[in-house]
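Q: Please design a sequence for this.
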């Protein structure tokens, strides 16, 4: 669902003092850059005579009466000769969350403010003798000349396979990628590690380091409202979605042995004879993800048009499927005769079809042809280091029931996952 009056996303059609005490979980993560910048400028406003009755001094930014305030700068309250006691920021009747630094001397709003809105701030500080001082401020944020919208390929409340990435697309190119990336917050029922990856300037995807644990409940909020995605271009709505990872289903298809190993719920479920693409129509190597399924799917190729193919599960945009090929059962397990699909027996195709959901990994091995990037959900073509390199922050993301945080990848232990159940690649070390 989309907050702030947005519309639902759909499937993609084609190819500073350190803040320690949080008032809102993971608040410092999304606004750390804003906090550092605010801390450097607001302290100068604290000079001057102390208010009568209290030694504490307060400064609120934006100042009272300000207009055309940049929403991405948020609200900062700084205190000298005392500590923050209470800060209330409201937009109409809606309260705005925030956090304080470890010394209780600086408060900052958690996320960016909404454009074209009136805000009111009331802040109270207390000095060492227990005397308090209160200051207020009212201001209005700017009205942007250009805006950007976002949508996701994920369906709210849907089940997905263990390889499924979170994909967010933008209506305009994003140049301030760090700010956008830090506005993205994850909550997962089981601890996971992953990273955001930018595919160009209009798409960012979150992929886990190894496959999702099955039955993980996932939600994310893109706090884009008020974020300056490019110079003068602001988000005007947040984007949120929740989904769940289903049973683990992983297919590893060998084009040379002509067999597919099917792993279900982390155990070898079957070794099925297959026939993959014949020479010239080779099924390309790579770890793909299932996209959609239909029974039947109408297929066209040399000598046939709109031919109904039963129990077809698609894994590339260019038209490769795992499907029932009752006409090639005699070749399955022996030779490659397809036009690029993975041919299965009727029984095995139906079994796979009934188990599959979007995001189930399909790894093709042994082919003389390499897979093409973006021919399907190809985020698992990337090594862990490549994934990190494609992040604007170059940081890993750790998520769990309390939210998510950005962490230095060098602090992570080596992955213990092994192919094929944890990842489609050999054991993955940070230095490798």
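A: Design:
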């Amino acid at each position: 669902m989309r907050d702030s009056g947005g519309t639902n996303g759909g499937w993609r059609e084609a190819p500073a003092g350190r803040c320690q005490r949080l008032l809102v979980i993971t608040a410092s993560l999304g606004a750390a850059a804003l906090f550092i910048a605010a801390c450097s400028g607001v302290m100068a406003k604290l000079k001057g005579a102390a208010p009568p009755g209290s030694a504490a001094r307060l400064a609120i930014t934006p100042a009272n009466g300000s207009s055309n305030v940049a929403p991405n700068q948020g609200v900062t309250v700084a205190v000298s000769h005392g500590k923050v006691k209470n800060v209330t920021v409201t937009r109409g009747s809606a309260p705005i969350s925030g956090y304080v630094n470890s010394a209780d001397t600086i408060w900052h709003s958690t996320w960016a403010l909404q454009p074209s809105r009136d805000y009111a701030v009331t802040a109270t500080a207390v000095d060492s003798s227990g005397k308090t001082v209160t200051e207020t401020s009212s201001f209005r944020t700017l009205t942007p000349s250009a805006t950007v919208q976002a949508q996701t390929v994920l369906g709210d409340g849907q089940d997905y396979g263990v390889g499924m990435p979170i994909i967010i697309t933008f209506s305009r190119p994003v140049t301030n990628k760090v700010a956008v990336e830090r506005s993205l917050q994850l909550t997962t029922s089981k601890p996971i590690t992953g990273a955001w990856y930018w595919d160009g300037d209009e798409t960012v995807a979150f992929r886990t380091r190894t496959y999702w644990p099955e039955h993980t409940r996932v939600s994310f909020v893109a706090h884009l409202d008020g974020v300056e995605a490019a110079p003068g271009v602001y988000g005007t709505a947040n984007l949120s979605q929740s989904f769940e990872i289903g049973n683990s289903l992983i297919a590893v298809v060998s084009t040379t042995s002509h067999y597919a190993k099917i792993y279900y719920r982390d155990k070898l479920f079957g070794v099925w004879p297959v026939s993959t693409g014949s020479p010239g129509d080779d099924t390309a190597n790579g770890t793909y993800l299932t996209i959609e399924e239909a029974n039947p799917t109408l297929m066209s190729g040399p000598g046939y048009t709109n031919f109904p193919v039963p129990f077809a599960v698609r894994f590339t945009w260019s038209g490769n499927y795992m499907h029932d090929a009752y006409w090639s059962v005699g070749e399955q397990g022996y030779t490659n005769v397809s036009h690029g699909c993975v041919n299965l027996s009727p029984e095995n195709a139906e079994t796979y079809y009934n188990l599959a959901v979007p995001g189930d990994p399909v790894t093709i091995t042994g082919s003389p042809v390499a897979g093409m990037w973006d021919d399907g959900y190809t985020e698992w073509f990337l090594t862990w280091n490549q994934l990190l390199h494609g992040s604007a922050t170059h940081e890993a993301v750790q998520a769990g029931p309390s939210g998510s945080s950005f962490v230095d990848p060098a602090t992570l232990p080596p992955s213990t996952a092994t192919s094929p159940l944890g990842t489609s690649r050999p054991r993955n070390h940070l230095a490798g």
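Q: Thanks. Anything notable?
A: Residues 250 and 263 are 5 Å apart (CA to CA). Confidence is low (pLDDT under 50) at residues 1-38, 47-51, 424-432.
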